[in-house]
Write a structure and sequence with these properties.
This protein is an alpha+beta fold and 396 residues long. The chain has 13 helices and 14 strands. A hairpin with a 2-residue loop joins strand 7 and strand 8. The longest helix has 19 residues.
Length: 396
């Protein structure tokens, strides 16, 4: 793992969303106002989306799911308009649901989530409406998760379409057949179920037994911080869009060993035996080492900041952890390095960021790598170290 260690003293605050409304407005892209549009049907189609789902033998599993939760009637309304990222029977089978009989025994909440997360109400988005920009756009699905405080405006669970040189995606699921237009909207056939998230990042990360150092590092980095300046608060804030590159326990152990080894080696005039022994003792201390004075709070906070992807707020210019980046949003590995910025840019605005590269097998990402500016031990050429390879992708 290549980590450039910043003291991060300038980061008095993370410059993130100060209120619920601002948080909702400062996501990947401003949500468009849902205004129905009267698009002419392709091939003079007089069928609605609901009628097609109800009659086409390729959609029997989604039909069973939509019927069970009462969505067929909604999708059959000719006076409404929808975009549907529709999994056909092949997509359901690829996702582990082999038949409509399985839909009948799944919990109704799970069935409703599958159906309603596939539906974008009030808009018809064709592939031409999705820009090829990093990382994606944000659209409201049919799932309501809350009401904006002081208003009657529903807060919808978002989905994230994107278009790259590889193809069209919804979240990280490729679209296999785009732009099927009908009387009341457009269908994009997807290769698998686009699954909605079921928990916040904090729960997913803290309950992972292979991320105990990460949890300890967050606690140390948050020392003396309050509110949304705390990483812990951000991870538990459901309306943010964040992407976290979470180092595993093994990655942290390598870091701790090398940090301690380098420090002791220098202090002892190059005594390899003592440096190795002290470094191994530090690793043996486990995550508790990150709470000691052997490593500063500022350094731990800098390490954590380098693992939260960020982008500049279009109004203030300050960097915020406000992008939800799926593996398929990264370009294929090529001769041209692709840089993505992190929360380190909050205090070092001109920092180039980290280099990301994806390896594709067909339309899916099979490997994702990141290279940091710095090297361990320090002194190597920028971005010359061994890449950090993601061991798990797209935990949404």
């Amino acid at each position: 793992m290549n980590i450039h260690l910043y003291q991060y003293k300038k980061l008095a605050r993370l410059s993130v969303m100060a209120s619920f409304v601002i948080a909702f407005a400062s996501c990947n892209k401003d949500l468009p106002d849902p205004v129905p549009i009267d698009y002419p049907p392709v091939n003079s189609s007089t069928s609605t989306i609901g009628e097609i789902i109800n009659s086409d033998p390729n959609y029997t599993i989604f039909k069973a799911a939509a019927t069970r939760v009462g969505a067929i009637a909604t999708l059959s309304d000719p006076n409404k308009v929808f975009t549907v990222f529709l999994p056909d029977d092949n997509a359901f089978i690829a996702s582990g649901i082999p038949s409509a009989a399985v839909i009948a025994v799944l919990p109704i909440q799970q069935v409703g989530a599958i159906v309603n997360y596939a539906i974008i109400p009030g808009e018809q988005f064709t592939s031409a409406d999705v820009p090829q920009t990093f990382p994606n756009i944000q659209l409201p699905s049919s799932i309501t998760i809350a009401i904006l405080p002081g208003t009657t405006i529903p807060l919808k669970l978002s989905t994230f379409p994107s278009k790259t040189s590889i193809g069209l995606y919804d979240n990280n699921i490729p679209v296999v057949t785009p732009d099927l237009k009908f009387k009341n909207g457009v269908i994009h056939i997807v290769a698998g179920i686009v699954a909605p998230p079921s928990q916040v990042l904090r729960d997913a990360l803290y309950n992972n037994p292979n991320l105990t150092y990460f949890k300890a590092a967050i606690a140390r980095a948050d020392s003396g911080q309050t509110g949304l300046n705390r990483f812990d608060s951000l991870l538990n804030y459901a309306v943010t869009n964040m992407t976290v590159l979470a180092p595993t326990d093994t990655a942290f152990q390598k870091l701790v060993y090398l940090l301690v080894y380098g420090k002791v080696y220098a202090l002892t005039g190059g005594n390899d035996v003592i440096a190795d022994a002290q470094a191994n003792m530090a690793v043996a201390a486990g995550p508790a080492f990150l709470g000691t004075n052997n490593i500063s709070t500022a350094m731990v906070r800098g390490i954590m900041a380098y693992h939260f992807l960020a982008s500049p707020n279009p109004v203030t210019g300050s960097f915020e952890p406000n992008i939800r980046v799926f593996s398929t949003n990264f370009p294929p590995a090529s001769a041209t390095p692709f840089f993505v910025q992190t929360l380190v840019n909050s205090s070092v605005a001109i920092h180039p960021g980290i280099i990301a590269s994806a390896t594709y097998t067909g339309p899916f990402v099979s490997s994702l790598k990141f290279i940091g500016l710095g090297t361990i031990p320090p002194g190597g050429a920028p971005y010359s170290g061994t890449p950090a390879v993601a061991t798990s992708l797209d935990k949404h």
